[in-house]
Amino acid sequence: MRKKRLGEILMDAGLLTETQLRSALAEQRKWGGKLGHTLVQMGFVDESSMVHALSRQLHIPAVDLDTVTPPEHVFKLFRVDLAERYSVFPVAVDVAHKTLTLASADPTNVEALQELAFHTDQKIQVVVSSPSAIERATRKYYYGGASNITASPDQFGISEPTYEFTPPPSPRLSSPREAELQQRVEALSQQVNDLQEMVANQARSLSALIEVLESHGVLSREEYFSKLRGPRS
After folding, report:
1. Same domain as 160, residue 95
2. pLDDT digits over 10-45, tens only?
3. Which of 36, 42, 101, 164 has a CA 20 to 30 Å removed from the CA of 154?
4. Shared domain check, 132 and 91
């Protein structure tokens, strides 16, 4: 069966209406970024309710990143560009079993988690956290230094994880033609990743601009989103 997406889960939990979801998806297509962040910015759902709904519906642990101290070596294993591109944060690693535990604001994004398994060559276990907590943790640990205290998957109750993604086996190339095709696929994948990063940077720049305008009293977020939604009938 097809797994439900973030918007569907929030609708099932009674936190979001279909009209609100369509409006948020339209803004996401226009400005980029993650749906969960867009829903929070537009005031349709608060982060705490979203985290608890995802944890309850998907039967995976919710993690408060403000109280978790990951092992320092996890940041060498998991690069900051991956954390920022996919809006996830590494909280634990099991070196013996090549398993990485990531906090995500949208654990329903199976494609992203499968890509992360491929990029890291690790099995991925996922826990849920809020978008702002992930951003704070990324700034703190990747740009401000980390402690040596170690977190383990057992702290999150992940003895039998619900979501686990295993990296695909490395393909065996049997001819120069296959090798050439593989190189083309890798080049295209890199172009797509670069484009995603550019869009994410533009979205962050726009968000920063809105914060500056808001801090100077020129424009409020409510006025901004009201303008985007247009006049109400």
Report:
1. yes
2. 888 888 889 988 988 888 888 877 788 888 888 888
3. 36
4. yes
